[in-house]
Design goal:
The structure holds two protein chains of two kinds. Chain A is of the alpha+beta class. Chain A has helices at 12-21, 34-40, 74-79, 81-86, 88-96, 100-103, 108-113, 122-127, 225-229, 238-251, 262-286; strands at 5-7, 26-28, 47-50, 60-63, 65-69, 131-136, 139-144, 149-151, 154-155, 162-168, 175-182, 193-201, 207-215, 222-223. The radius of gyration of chain A is 19 Å and the shape is globular. In chain B, helix 2 (87-94) crosses helix 5 (140-156). Chain A binds chain B through residues 1-6, 8, 28, 30-32, 35-36, 39-40, 48, 50, 52, 75, 98-102, 104-105, 186-188, and chain B through 1, 3, 19-21, 23, 42-45, 47, 50, 53, 56-59, 61-64, 66-67, 110, 113, 128-129, 131-134.
Amino acid sequence: MNRFDYLSPRNLAEALQMLSVRPEAIPLAGGTDILVQMKERSRHIEALLSLKRVPELHQYSLNGTLTLGSALTVGQIAAKQEIQRDYTALAIGSGLIGSVQIRNMATLGGNLCNAAPSADTAPPLLVLGAEVVIASHQGERVVPLETFFLEPGRTILQPTELVKEIVLSKSHTRTGSFYIRHTPRAGMDIAVVGVAAAITLNTNEIILNARLALGAAAPVPMRAVQAEALLPGHRLTDELLREVGKTASQEAEPIDDLRASAEYRRHLVNILTQRALRGAMAKAKSNQGYQE
Amino acid sequence: MEYKLNFSVNKQPVDLLVEPHQTLLEILRDNLFLIGTKDGCGTGDCGSCTVLVDGEPVCACLMLAVEAEGQEVTTVEGLVTDSELHAVQKALIANGGVQCGFCTPGVLLSSVALLTRNPQPSEVEIREALAGNLCRCTGYDKIVRAVQEATKELEHA
């Protein structure tokens, strides 16, 4: 690793102040991506801004809405019972990243800011309607996660900005979500394709609302809006599932790379979309009668 | 620029100067001579550098030493009490769970963290907890059996 300056702010105001003076500083959260980039790909870094001791970024609150500080580890998120129950897709995605060791280090904000097309928290957060709270020394702005990613490895964040927290709206009755990915190995692997689904049912098990999101199926994690649009007003029949899966696979914009061909990725989007919807459906049926 | 680092290693307070680019793994091995923690891939894939930070397993190769300020680090050297091996160490020996030994320190710390959190893990939970500790001698079954045996041992202790 190259030599770099190490900045260690003690609160958010100090962190944002430091970043305004040293905009070339790269925020350091869990370090599981950035240290690998510095070691393996010789990424040159002038300064790291450590987020470890910024208490505002470690906050967790479930008070109607769910607010997740960007420096919470994915291990902490995967272990929360209320996230497993009400924001299932996020608990699944967070729990699939790396190993126990990596999940104890890697953070939610880091997974998003690294902007890998295959980030396992991104499709779940997209179907859960996540908003990103971005802070700089000049103030805060809130953007939907859908507008956050620009291209592989790049987000809308300006050099003086940090992701402060992720906000998810209240989970409703008869709502369920699910995330499923394909990897050649059972663990310690990167998604070839990942699909998240969220469904809200009415009392007659007719779909009121549905969202689908795809990972590693386009340059950035994406909603499959055309496929989603086929669902409201219907029951989830096998025929509808096939139709939605096919539409999602047509909407995807996958590439050929060393992990899979574009053609295989389209096939995976089709199949995994159907499985994610079945998973979300099962969750929605079981989420009766609490909250609201 | 050097930074003053105060933390604890195997319950002993440690106070030293570190450069920001030095990883926790480098400090443990090169400055504190705790060479039980192994340097495998250096990129968080193999788990041979696993140590506990405040009781949780992490990859010491991906953690800057300065980030350990104020924290409690446990390495494989810290598992022995009064010259007595930890139950998981004994069980690994008894079950042939040690072949070349390079993954063993990491396997031990992941297992000890699991048993602290969950004293009665299922086989699936043991395998999940050890998923980040690669053994290239591929003796996983013996390692899993050893952890199961240690579970019983600790239950009776």
